[in-house]
Write a structure and sequence with these properties.
single chain, 394 residues, alpha/beta, UDP-n-acetylglucosamine1-carboxyvinyl-transferase, Chain, 2 domains, 4-stranded mixed beta sheet, 12 helices, 22 strands
């Protein structure tokens, strides 16, 4: 699908969808709890559906009614073998690789080519010969069962979360020791907080996590808004016209609430806010100065190489952009115009960042493969239109 975005003035109120990161965690907790849990203010997307559907072979039932997700884990049971399709969801595959093998003799994880281009080295180290990766398939045959887990936190916090889920279903207390610089540390806190809402008592002291397993209890919760998705409209409000973004929790553990602090900085460190990269690149393209982005390397291992994807599109607007190792420089302009079609690279965050930028271009902007927003925010363009942005679809 192509979208054609015309320069137009934004105005109004937008309620952002629920936090995808938190939704994954609540879903997993609810599936592990024996009983019925309800998650209010839930917004369906491909990624969280991948996590939900992964539990169906284990006897889980769920129902989505409006914005309420009900999960019935009463009949949760172990199986012999199971095949799980994770599609493009890194959270699904990285959270569930350590967890689901506790309930099966063999679990095969499948997914897209893009998903399998993302690093899995830490699990290869932890599982050894009990994990096999071949093409777009990962086969796990035995759990990691240890009182003390040492894990590299510098690649992705998702590996740490995966091992937390692995340890809370064990019969014995355990300790996870995170080594190296911790990437996106706040996401680990999101995991601990989610499990706490389902009755778990987990303590974290910087790089050490202490787990004393107990029965995971059903819970009724309300999802909070997603700061990463909100960042698109926060930037829209800065470059276009005032937009009121609602549904956010000012006390959230989501680290991307720092979007407000990162705007207008001459140097932006993306090490703990990697998903903000595309929209911050787009914002920098509108500023009459050079913005320096550091610690950009993890942008390479997303749904696309987001550094190159954004730069290749920004240069079509005449924006000067330069990459040196782990650093990117973007020099903005107040005269954005392009006659070339933009490419989302099938990356939802790249697509949304470009769409926000397109609203203030001198003429219409065409973005290819725009359906990729369904991965995390199916109603993105509808919400953009509700604010007065003129959009056509082809």
């Amino acid at each position: 699908m192509k979208v054609i975005i015309y320069p137009s003035r934004a105005n109004g109120i937008v309620r952002v969808p629920c936090s995808k990161s938190i939704a994954h965690r609540y879903i997993i907790c609810a599936c592990l709890a024996k009983g019925i849990s309800k998650i209010e203010n839930y917004d369906e997307c491909i990624d969280t559906l991948s996590t939900l559907n992964a539990f169906l072979p284990f006897g889980i039932k769920y129902k989505i009614s409006g914005k309420c997700l009900t999960i019935d884990s009463t009949d949760f049971h172990s199986v012999d073998e199971v095949v799980i399709d994770c599609h493009e969801s890194a959270s699904t595959i990285r959270f569930l690789i350590p967890l689901l093998i506790n309930y099966a003799n063999k679990v095969t994880f499948m997914g897209s080519e893009v998903l399998f281009s993302r690093p899995m080295d830490e699990y290869v180290r932890l599982f050894g010969s009990d994990i096999k990766i071949s093409g777009n398939e990962i086969v796990v045959t035995k759990t990691v069962d240890s009182d003390t887990i040492y894990i590299d936190g510098s690649i992705s916090s998702q590996f740490v979360t995966g091992m937390i889920f692995n340890q809370v279903v064990k019969a014995h207390p355990s300790t996870i020791i995170i080594q190296g610089n911790i990437a996106s540390s706040s996401y680990i806190d999101l995991t601990i907080d989610a499990l706490g809402k389902f009755g778990q008592n987990i303590k974290r002291d910087d790089n050490v996590i202490y787990i004393i397993p107990s029965s995971i209890k059903p819970s009724n919760l309300e999802e909070e808004g997603d700061y990463t998705q909100a960042s698109n409209f926060i930037v829209l409000s800065k470059i276009n016209n005032l937009v009121d973004v609602v549904g956010l929790n000012k006390d959230s553990l989501q680290n991307d609430k720092l979007i407000y602090d990162l705007l207008d900085k001459d140097e932006i460190d993306l090490s703990n806010n990697i998903d903000l990269g595309p929209v911050l690149f787009a914002y920098a393209a509108t500023l009459p100065k050079t913005t320096k982005f550091i610690n950009t390397s993890r942008l390479i291992y997303k749904e696309s190489n987001r550094v190159l994807a954004m730069i290749n599109n920004l240069v079509k607007f005449g924006i000067k952009a330069e990459v040196k190792n782990n650093i990117c420089f973007i020099t903005g302009s107040n005269n954005l115009a392009t006659t070339e079609e933009l490419d989302s690279y099938n990356d939802h965050r790249v697509c949304m960042g470009l769409a926000i930028l397109a609203t203030i271009a001198k003429d219409k902007v065409i973005i290819n493969n725009a359906e990729c927003v369904n991965k995390s925010y199916p109603n993105f363009f509808k919400d953009l239109e509700s604010l007065g942005i003129k959009i056509e679809y082809k």
